[in-house]
Amino acid sequence: MLRSFSVFKVLIGLTLLAGFILSGCSHTSELFRDDAIDKNENVAYSVIYYIHADADYLYHNTAGKPVRANRQVLDEALKVAEEAESGEVFIFYQRPEKKFLGLFPRKSNRFYHYTNGEKTSQVNYRHSDSNEEFLATEAKLYNQYQTYSEDEKKRNFFLYFGHEIPDDGGNKYHQTLPDIEVNIATFSSGIQKFLNKDNHWYDLIVLSTCNNGTPEMAADLMPFSHVMLASPQNLHLSHIDSQKLDLLESNPDEITNFQLANSMAKQTYQRLEKEIHTAITLSVYELDVVKEYQNELRTFTTAYDTLDQKQSFSNNIDCKHASFFDEATFDKGVKTWYKPASFGRKSYSSTHSGWGCVPVIE
């Protein structure tokens, strides 16, 4: 009897293993789908969250309690999705990709889709090509599940949470997918895959990262985005709050993209001001205005890039410290929330241009 039970357990194990191997051939696994959803249902806006969790985002709050910042962002995104009664929300939660028994790839990543406040799909997925273009898998899922709204005035928002997006290179940005290059160029081309021909603009792009409020990032995003919210310097492993997206429900006709970004920046700044003593810098860039002096901005960037001995792996400094930075020109269309550090030699500065630059060895 005991021997028969052992054989039965082995058979069960082999069956489960065979099922796992067969399911591993597909890079997606649909956990939930609401078949009643009308693909042509009207939505007033679309919000895409991309939460990068394939790295270390552990920090300690003011009480000394360890917190996983990426999990905090996911909870906030799900809450926003549930309250978006007239919108559509897509959440991509990119986690470390692991293998079962060291051989079979798991579907570690999560994709959530909400329409008008209701969850319509949930998918586990993995990247079938470890050398693919950045955001290629996510864009395919988005285009597969999105609602085909006929509202020409539909507004589009993209919120990115992760580590600093480098100017170039970007190998090993993902710890478990080191061959996928993540840099300003691949990010820019990647998020354009979510846009269609009829609605090819983002009303607002939020970069909840360190050091990405830069002339280089603005130049790459301005051809297809109206507003950018980013930090020119260190964001201290925290995140930009997105609860103010509820203004799209409570005040949709009057809230402009610039006002929405300002509300998010203000809420984030007020929270961080109570929590940390390091510098806080958040900037909102009205890219339609910045575009008017894009040639001057590119000239500045080109000149700055010729400077020797830049500290590529250090936090940004204020671009205004460069002698050829034209503050009178470059402050147009930029609003900044800034508090200097409570200590250190940089704590004396009381204002910030809103633009971040890689520091140069003095």
Task: Lay out the secondary structure.
Layout: H1 2-23, E1 28-33, E2 45-52, E3 58-60, E4 66-68, H2 69-83, E5 87-94, E6 99-100, E7 104-105, E8 109-115, E9 118-125, H3 136-145, E10 155-161, H4 184-192, E11 204-208, H5 215-221, E12 227-230, H6 247-250, H7 257-275, E13 280-286, H8 287-290, H9 294-305, E14 317-318, H10 327-330, E15 334-339, E16 356-357
Parallel strand pairs: 2-5, 2-10, 10-11, 11-12
Antiparallel strand pairs: 1-9, 3-4, 5-8, 6-7, 8-9, 12-13, 13-15, 14-16
What can be said about this structure in brief?
With 362 residues, the chain is an alpha/beta fold.
Category from helices, strands and their pairing: alpha/beta
SSE sequence, one letter per element: HEEEEHEEEEEHEHEHEHHEHHEHEE
Helix content, binned percent: 25-40%
Morphology: globular
Query: Number of helix segments?
Result: 10
Low-confidence runs: 10-24, 100-104
Distance between the termini: 80 Å
Mean pLDDT: 85
Q: What does the main sheet amount to?
A: 10 strands, mixed
- Please report which band the strand proportion falls in: under 5%, 5-15%, 15-25%, 25-35%, 35-45% or over 45%: 15-25%
As a whole number of angstroms, the C-alpha radius of gyration is 22 Å
Number of E strands: 16
Enumerate the strands of the largest sheet in spatial order, edge to edge or round the barrel: 1-9-8-5-2-10-11-12-13-15
Oligomeric status: single chain
What does the model show?
The structure is a single chain. The protein is an alpha/beta fold. The protein is 29% helix and 22% strand. The protein is built from 10 helices and 16 strands. It has a 10-stranded mixed beta sheet, with helices on both faces. A two-stranded antiparallel ribbon has the order 3-4. Strand 6 and strand 7 (104-105) form a beta hairpin.
